[in-house]
Amino acid sequence: MAAPAGTAAIPHGDMAEILPSLPLEIRCPPFPLRRYKGFWLPEAVLTELASIHARIQPRTSDIFLASFPKSGTTWLKALAFATANRARHRPSDVDHPLRHMNPHQCVKFMEMDLDLRRRDVSSLLEEFEALGSLPPRLLATHLPYCLLPESFTRESRLVYICRKVSSAYGVDARCFTLEEAFERFCDGRLYGGPHWKHVLQYWEESMRRPQHVMFLEYEKMVRDPGGGLKKLAEFMGCGFSSEEEKGGVVEAIVKLCSLRELKNQGVNKSGGNSNQAGGIKNEAFFRKGDIGDWRNHLTPAMANRLDKIVEDALQGSGFTFQEDISTTID
């Protein structure tokens, strides 16, 4: 099979040389962004691309979780981790890892879950390599599809979750007004942006190779979390048995990973992941979880403008975002 478009012949090894010439965006703290291959990404992430491509050794049993920032990443990590590890960590266990660890500590980010000032990417990948193949190894990424390692896209299964309007438009609300954040989102000048281009690349690959790429829509998952979870488990190669379904395991995992349950865990009320750039607090990963909450913030004119931008960008692709109806992950 030919290499996926954009994943071959990318001169990541020359990044230090070409980085200063790439378009720069400094208005998205805590890190400067550069536009590379059509996407805005942190300089620190771009400098690690060559190491990631060279060092990662995926297995056919691996599951990679991909998303645009603020699009249901935390929820997907929790669901995938609880499902893959249910044999040794029953969802009802009082000492279940998700009751004392944030989902981002259970499933690491390939390109950003390390302090780039103190560790190099090799240490994270060495930890990943040391894991066994059962249950499936889980690793996450916010990288666009065109920048994933070719071995990654060729060998492993990948689950992508998308959301019609990513929460908080993918920018730090402490640094911008709503109007400023909206402008960044519309311009695509934010981590991983443009949003619709990020989504479209994964959707197109899921159409080409559905056995390797599963495309989930946040809105559909919220409306039917049990049904979505069963499809996710099947794709991951660890589907639920009839006995498990009759025994309520699916419902137990959905409850364990619900926004209300996760928010109420002590670890998610305080503390944070010191490995992630910016020292993000755990509580910041849990917002309302509502579908359609954007209606409470965007004016009709803003909504129409964004709809037109996305409609034009997706024209002819065959993909459309689902209409949303207000619902909450509870």
UniProtKB/TrEMBL annotation:
Keyword Transferase: yes
MF term (GO), any: sulfotransferase activity
Keywords in alphabetical order: Transferase
Sulfotransferase domain sequence ranges: 61-318
Assigned EC number: 2.8.2.-
The protein, known as: Sulfotransferase
Signal peptide extent: none
Any one Pfam family match given in the protein's UniProt record, by short name: Sulfotransfer_1
Organism this protein belongs to: Digitaria exilis
Family assignment from sequence similarity: Belongs to the sulfotransferase 1 family.
